[in-house]
Design brief:
Layout (H helix, E strand, L loop, with lengths): L1 H13 L3 H18 L2 H17 L3 H14 L3 H17 L3 H9 L5 H18 L2 H17 L4 H17 L3 H14 L3 H17 L3 H14 L5 H17 L3 H18 L2 H14 L4 H24 L1 H11 L3
């Protein structure tokens, strides 16, 4: 009985009916627990946690994965749970915690790609060149030495595009972004990668091309992918800033902030508010208010990192990582 309910949950994930998946998997988890089926319980927890991630319900997902790490002897499921805790830490902006977690995990292609992404984010926010070098080194080694699937190549090329954009090698960055988009079949992932290419065009002043790409991406973004929508709004706000339409920019940034506030991704809010304040230097009063809000959200991002120190403690207790 419980196996069939679990299978219904897995099928719902495949159909992207995540609400129904949560319903079935939560029921299966309880049933497996009552009947003492530990293997079934572990699998139901694992898939319930990843469904919460698909829904961007990070707190619920974290609770499930911490429970798995604390209470399962299945090394494969435990390793999966730790990798998801790394993703959750990265999504809320605590990249160093995520990097510590991934350092404890096996060097699978997926884990190495995630590690490279984390090095990139630390370089992006903290300006550490050696972190950018570390990210590029991992990806180039993967690209040259390991046979990758199309999905994995798409991820590698997308991050290389981001790295080269940060290095201001725009021609090479554009080629990697375009190849990543070509290799991507999933519409939600493709929308995110089109957003990234649009951001490159915004940065290089090709605003009409950027707008066309953002329009293309918006057609692919589902209601469930709130973060892709947030980044789409973010780049539209950046275009409005470049066109000196600060009222329009503020409107897009408000939409972006509403989404990322809900997800607790305060570092992103700080970034976009800082950019808006920087462009509004002529209006000192308005600029200073926006800058004050940017500083507030930067501090909130630091508070979020402090609240996740228990992930570090969990990592130490389970894996004996320095």
């Amino acid at each position: 009985m419980w196996e069939k309910i679990y299978e219904k949950g897995v099928d719902a994930i495949k159909r992207r009916d995540y609400i129904k998946a949560v319903e079935h998997l939560a029921e299966a988890k309880t049933g497996f627990l009552i009947t003492g089926n530990k293997e079934g319980e572990n699998l139901a927890k694992r898939d319930l946690g990843r469904t919460y991630l698909y829904l961007n319900r990070y707190t619920d997902a974290k609770d499930i994965f911490v429970d798995i790490v604390n209470n399962t002897d299945d090394s494969e499921v435990k390793s999966y749970a730790m990798s998801r805790l790394g993703i959750i830490s990265a999504e809320i902006g605590d990249y160093q915690a995520a990097l510590d977690i991934y350092a404890s995990l096996p060097d699978t292609v997926s884990n190495l790609i995630n590690t490279a992404m984390l090095h990139y984010h630390i370089a992006f926010f903290d300006g550490k060149q050696y972190e950018l070098d570390a990210a590029e080194r991992i990806l180039l080694e993967l690209k040259s030495r390991i046979t990758l699937s199309s999905e994995q190549k798409g991820r590698v090329f997308n991050i290389l595009g981001m790295i080269l954009q940060l290095r201001k090698d725009y021609g090479a960055s554009k080629r990697y972004y375009e190849e990543s988009i070509r290799l991507t079949e999933d519409n939600e992932i493709k929308a995110r990668r089109i957003n990234d290419l649009a951001g490159l065009y915004v940065e290089t002043g090709k605003l009409l091309k950027a707008e066309d790409l953002l329009d293309e991406a918006s057609l692919l973004i589902s209601e469930k992918d709130a973060l892709a929508l947030a980044y789409n709004y973010k780049w539209r706000g950046m275009i409005a800033i470049e066109e000196n339409d600060f009222e329009k920019a503020a409107g897009f940034y408000k939409k972006t902030a509403n989404i990322v506030k809900e997800k607790g991704i305060f570092r992103q809010i700080a970034e976009i508010l800082h950019a808006l304040a920087d462009k509004m230097r002529g209006d000192f009063h308005e600029s200073s208010q926006i800058m004050a809000e940017a500083i507030l959200y930067r501090r909130k991002s630091e508070e979020v990192m402090l609240t996740h120190e228990k992930i570090h403690d969990l990592l130490d207790s389970v894996f004996d990582v320095d």
